[in-house]
Amino acid sequence: MIKIKISWVAFIFTTVFVCTPLLTQAQNPYQTRNHHFGVSGGNVKDITQSFCCSGTLGSLVTAGGTQYVLSNNHVLARQDRATTGENISQPGLIDNGCQPAAIVADYTAAVPLGNNVDCALAGLRSGKMDSTGFIEGIGTISSNVKAPAIGLAVEKSGRTTGTTTGTIGSIHTSVNVQYQIRCGSGRIYTISYADQVVINSNSFSAGGDSGSLIVTSNAVCHRPVALLFAGSSSTTIGNPIREVLNKLGGVLGTSVSFVGSACPASPMEEFEAQQMQLPQEALDDASRVLEQNRHDLMSRLGVLGVGLGVLEDNSVPAIVVYVDNTSSANPQVPAQIDNVPIRLVMTDPFIAF
User: Fold this and answer.
1) Pairing of strands 340-347, 317-324
2) Residues 88, 57 contacting (CB under 8 angstroms)
3) pLDDT of 235 over the 80 cut
4) Residue 88 and residue 52: Cα distance in Å, rounded?
5) What is the pLDDT of residues 166-181, one digit of tens each?
């Protein structure tokens, strides 16, 4: 989620108006009124005395005959503080001078934070957004989800960075993510997640892209992979999408699925998922060693996350350890454990985007 300081709103918007041409929807469709998904939006009550916050209305799902906007708990539910029926606007407050724009949905339900996912739903108002679930810059998607895999080519559409592409750098990743209790104010607290998807890139996402749907990067059929919710300046973190749907279904009491076509997996997509051609036996060994040492590695000062990935040259499976480059702590991580190499990724702390 991204925030803007209210006391500076008038100055910022005056500067934009005077010094630069006004952006048209064709120039910046991700931050203006748009009927597609993968664009700016959020809860109109996500505002404090000094700041307003927004994220991304990522995609469209259906449950029990009703269509819902899918995004994060911290985007739609204000970190478990929202009540049923709160207005969801598009674009979000931050892109409309901290004032509500078009109301497109009504907050419905969320999986409470602390349950390994950061997700929420808002009932779509009739005619307010594309009922086919078209995602800006991507198009319509498949209703069939895909399990994350190391090296899988993916893309997303989000409020801040638009449509971007990348590859999955680690799976089965434990991470500690920082949240701030209210929009731009209040104490900072940490939630631990397990089995997360991480994309190692400094351009895949940024603050405000939370809620974006991460899908396979395939011209034939975009299959949902993960729900973007956090990251750092060089990483993006997503909840595996099957767990998101399953837990939302538990909250609603009925199954949740994506609005899209039931297109089959294409040969090209399967190739992309296996492009590193990693031996299964080596993957199994690395996974076993990771599980045996996960708790020990995560308990070391300065370690932000631990997952299963590959060495930087993509040659062999490795345990990926994300280390806080802003901390003075030296976690003393070995080069390998039981013949499984360890790859260190230096980054800043993970925060909810």
Assistant:
1) parallel
2) yes
3) yes
4) 14
5) 999 999 999 999 999 9
